[in-house]
Amino acid sequence: MMPGHRSFSRGGPALPLARMAVAICALLVWAAAAAAQSTAPPDLSGFWINQYTPDLSIVLGKQPPFTEFGAERWRTVDTAKDPTAICLPVGPSRGFTAPFPFLLVQDDKTISIMFEYQAIWRAIYMDGRAHPDDLADYPYFMGHSIGRWEGDTLVVDTQGIDERSWLDTAGHEHSDKLKLTERFKKTGPDTIQWTVTYEDPVFFTRPWSIERTFTRGKPGDRVLPYTCNENNKDVEHLRPHQPNLNYKHVPDPPPARKPGER
Amino acid sequence: MKRGIAALFTAIALLASGHSLAAHHSFAAQYDSNKPVTLKGGITRIEWANPHIYFYIDVADSSGAVQWAIEGGAPSTLYRAGWRKDSAKVGDIVTVSGFLARDGSKLVNMQRALLADGRSLFVGNQSYYQKGR
After folding, report:
1. Quick one: pLDDT at residue B125?
2. Sequence spans of domains, chain A
3. B16 pLDDT exceeds 70?
4. CATH topology assigned to domain B2-124
């Protein structure tokens, strides 16, 4: 056998094979990169402007589905007792409905929200953890948030919310059983659709939701100071104010039965 | 036309909400929307501080001058609207329209303030925030 023949017989086919292998590898790398790109979560980071929503029931078009207890609390709420009036943290959802912007910072493990209003933050843990077992014993005004991606939508579950926080300026309250489910979906380069669902069996007979839009700020926009205790003179001038004393509770109708259901 | 209608609706929404920047707490817990007031006086002090700015004016009355406290918006809101802490100076004469505090103190929630040269003073930029409806 001639060396050349041998080399041809062994090396010849080996060269196209090696080329093919390289090509396949390159294809795999490209495919993996493309797949990673298509499944990479959208970038929500940036400076965002809220829609100011002082009364959630205006967006809802009616009062939330109160339990008897929730209705009585709404009827007798004293708006002079708003926790933010004495500079307590705004609460997880009300931060997104206040007339102040927020900064969102995103990485694989955590999404951080820095609210200008009351200079307070939320950490949304994205590492797959569950809520702490002892969360109910250690609630926080801004709650404990865990998040996950459902396709291109960020879904955030928040519990352990201190019952002293309010849902809005109008005086919608909640209990320590409140569970929030928020969905953040980019609807364009400069808009996020935010849907929040309130679940609280003490105050509401069923979950209810509202939807708002965040709009990106201008380049160079920054979060400005809101040092609430700096010069809070309002508190000494607040007087009891119960705007809903004439509120009449109409209980939520029972859910319609499905056909065949007893 | 469309813009005019939008502006009209915005104006109605602002009127309906009383004080549109009362995020800190309910407007009605502190002020009486049935008690409008207009005062004119010289600025004696400006507090550019959170959660709301204050300035003080001396208003002439039969016994001399009485000091009134005037409450405005949040510094960040006013800053974004182009106002600075020295946009008005001590000694400037200002005409303030607003609502009286419910507790009877000499305190006004400012809805409008005009300097002697006709400039509006410390007006927040409402359009920065989309109205929550």
Report:
1. 52
2. 46-237
3. no
4. OB fold (Dihydrolipoamide Acetyltransferase, E2P) (2.40.50)
A190 touches chain B (CB under 8 A): no
Look at B101 and A52 and tell me if their CB atoms are within 8 Å: no
Vertex B53, ends B48 and B58: CA angle to 5°? 95
Contact A85 B29 (CB under 8 A): yes
CB pairs under 8 A between A and B: 123
Q: Is B133's CB within 8 Å of A82's CB?
A: no
**What is the per-residue pLDDT for A18?**
73
ipTM reported for the complex, 2 dp: 0.80
Residue B1: how many CA atoms within 13 Å on its side-chain side? 0
**Virtual CA dihedral for B35, B40, B42, B45, nearest 10 degrees?**
10
Q: Which CATH number fits domain A46-237: 2.40.128.20, 3.10.20.30, 3.90.1150.10, 3.30.40.10?
A: 2.40.128.20
Average pLDDT over residues A28-53: 82
Cβ contact A230–B30 (<8 Å)? no
How close, in Å, is residue B126 to chain A by CA atoms? 9
